[in-house]
Specification:
Layout lengths: L6 H15 L8 E2 L5 E2 L6 E7 L5 E6 L16
Antiparallel strand pairs: 1-2, 3-4
Amino acid sequence: VELGAPIAEAANTVVNDVLVEAGGEGGVIAIDREGSIAMPFNSEGMYRASVDINGEMTVSIYRNKGEPEGAFAGTVEH
């Protein structure tokens, strides 16, 4: 993963390239210093939650409608 890559891009690369190449499946919850969150996963589901600057909470296990498989699922940018 390149230094300085956006958090969603970096997390996606780790989950869908590095982890897959190692024969694994799963996901990661990544947060950068600006508070942007990325929660990509390549498994059927992953427990995850976030709250944004306005107090809006998101709690999910399975992919939400409209989230592309293996992409930046769950990314919240501030």
